[in-house]
Design goal:
The chain is built from 12 helices and 3 strands, in the order αααααααβββααααα. By secondary structure, it is mainly α. A 3-stranded antiparallel sheet has the order 1-2-3, with no helix packed on it. The model has no long low-confidence stretch (mean pLDDT about 90).
Length: about 290
């Protein structure tokens, strides 16, 4: 449907949402359109959709095995889509607005402890010591992820002009095209300098062997190779490094609002999940160490 195609273009080009979010929203809206075709049993329009149809769709999604978090995302997609139709088509209804978001259990983000972090970096440094281009690049990416807390899409989109190795900082384009300046640690700076000396001239910071910008999938595969060198490697993903970045900063006494700014979170509530992680870790340490715990 043309409205969905226009919305997908808007998300990608105007809002600068991640490719993962764009694909998920497109999939959700196409699924809803297919549901409405059966639900109304004939011609229907976005303006004619009511709350019962939205609720019926969400219930059907849960019945086919979709988790509460995915159902919540589908509802968010519909709300955003109808706001888009309001702005672009003057549509005044939003049947998804009053529908409640499914409650789901809040899971604490996975992260590496200090020992695991050290092991991961030692293995990456050992691989890079042989002087191979991919290994030097992968170490630089690992250092950047952990040093800045950058998202996968943000790292993939970095250009040479975004990186300032004189001031040791990087300009990051986050969600909604919001820009933030994040400091780069000394080890990440050293790894990045070494990589850039090995890389051919390019607009993109991280490239493949052919000099083309490395895709998010390519970055994931490169990090997966490094994750496999540690014990819990199969359970790790790129976002684990972002979680580790935030958790380790808060463990060391960093201010919550500063961490929020570094991560590029619009809401402080999103960042607060990491305080729960720190509290859970402290509880574990307490019960292990206190003689009368």
């Amino acid at each position: 449907m043309s409205e969905i195609s226009e919305f997908v273009t808007f998300l990608s080009k105007e809002r600068n949402d991640s490719p993962h979010t764009v694909k998920a929203y497109e999939r959700d809206l196409n699924a809803f359109a297919a549901f409405c075709q059966d639900y109304y049993g004939g011609p229907w329009s976005w303006a004619g959709v009511d709350r019962l149809a939205v609720r019926g769709f969400l219930a059907a999604e849960q019945q086919r095995g979709l988790g509460k978090r995915s159902v919540g995302r589908a509802l968010s997609a519909l709300r955003t889509f109808y706001r888009f139709l309001n702005v672009t088509r003057g549509l005044e209804v939003n049947p998804a607005r009053a529908t409640r978001t499914p409650k789901f259990d809040r899971t604490l983000p996975s992260y590496l402890d200090r020992k695991e972090t050290d092991e991961l970096f030692q293995n990456a440094e050992q691989r890079a010591s042989a002087g191979g281009f991919a290994e030097i690049r992968d170490l630089a990416m690992l250092e950047m992820f952990y040093s800045t807390g950058i998202r996968l899409s943000e790292l993939a989109g970095l250009n040479d002009s975004d990186v300032d190795l004189v001031s040791d900082q990087v300009k990051v384009r986050g969600k909604g095209k919001k820009e933030r300046i994040v400091p780069i640690g000394s080890r990440a700076t050293a790894a990045l300098r070494r990589y850039l000396r090995a890389r051919a001239q390019s607009r993109a910071v991280f490239v493949n062997r052919r000099g083309k910008r490395l895709s998010p999938r390519g970055i994931q595969l490169a990090m997966k190779r490094l994750f496999e060198t540690v014990a819990q490697g199969t359970n790790l993903h790129v976002h684990t490094l972002r979680h580790s970045f935030a958790t380790h900063l808060l463990d060391a006494g960093a201010d919550l609002r500063s961490v929020q700014e570094l991560l590029g979170h619009a809401s402080l509530g999103t960042t607060q999940v990491y305080t729960h992680t720190s509290v859970e870790r402290l509880k574990k340490v307490y019960h292990q160490a206190h003689p009368r715990a």
